[in-house]
């Protein structure tokens, strides 16, 4: 009877020690920063491999625990080891996926900014080209062989001059309108680039905040089966 009581006391003490160890908060996993998409892909592949290894090791430990006297204490220790390992792997997985999402957004914004810059340069090149000279069409009726009088030739000349002046004035207005349109588009391009830079800065701040939140969540979340 005394031996049974002693054994029960030892089992309760071991269980209490395991419960106390499990109650200790685990430190937040330390995850190396990702610097490229290739690095992120390599991390994700390694996480998948290591997660399978963790589950395999737990299965081996579980079988070993059932051969021991203090089964529950042994199982609790094996489960805690698995939980810590999976939490670390989850933190690496979250950081790598987040880097890939941010990289995709940054590339898309850069492509939009580059497209706007090229459009502005092409518009500027078109406006810098000299305008084509206006073609004067001689639509005066042919005169008889005797020829027009001096007054008629003067009137015809004055009419041509007036038409040319009117066309020049119209072309000047078009050039001014084109110049104004170019300046507006150039200003809009500058504003778009500033907006892209602002969004990237906000995305980076959001990424850092989300990464910190996900690290804390991964440290406190139950183990992924």
Structure description:
This protein has 225 residues and is an all-alpha fold. The protein has helices spanning 2-23, 37-65, 71-128, 150-220. The model is unreliable at 1-23 (pLDDT under 50). Helices cover 80% and strands 0% of the residues. The chain has four helices and no strands.
Q: Estimate what percentage of residues fall within beta strands.
A: under 5%
What is the arithmetic mean of pLDDT? 80
- The total number of structural domains is 1
Main beta sheet strand tally, sense and closure:
none
Q: What Rg is obtained from the alpha carbons, in whole angstroms?
A: 40 Å
Helix/strand class: mainly alpha
Query: What is the string of helix and strand elements?
Result: HHHH
Q: How many β-strand stretches?
A: 0
Low-confidence stretches: 1-23
């Amino acid at each position: 009877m005394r031996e049974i009581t002693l054994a029960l006391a030892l089992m309760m003490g071991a269980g209490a020690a395991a419960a106390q160890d499990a109650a200790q908060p685990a430190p937040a996993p330390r995850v190396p920063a990702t610097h490229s998409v290739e690095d992120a892909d390599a991390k994700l592949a390694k996480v998948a491999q290591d997660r399978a290894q963790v589950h395999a090791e737990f299965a081996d430990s579980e079988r070993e625990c059932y051969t021991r006297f203090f089964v529950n204490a042994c199982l609790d220790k094996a489960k805690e080891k698995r939980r810590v390992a999976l939490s670390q792997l989850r933190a690496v997985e979250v950081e790598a996926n987040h880097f890939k999402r941010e990289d995709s957004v940054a590339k898309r914004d850069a492509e939009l900014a580059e497209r706007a810059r090229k459009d502005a340069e092409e518009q500027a090149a078109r406006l810098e080209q000299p305008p084509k000279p206006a073609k004067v069409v001689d639509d005066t009726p042919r005169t008889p062989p005797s020829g027009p009088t001096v007054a008629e030739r003067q009137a015809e000349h004055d009419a041509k001059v007036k038409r040319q002046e009117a066309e020049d004035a119209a072309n000047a207005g078009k050039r001014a309108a084109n110049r104004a349109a170019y300046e507006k588009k150039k200003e809009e391009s500058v504003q778009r680039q500033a907006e892209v830079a602002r969004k990237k800065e906000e995305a980076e701040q959001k990424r850092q905040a989300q990464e910190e939140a996900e690290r804390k969540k991964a440290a406190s979340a139950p183990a992924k089966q």
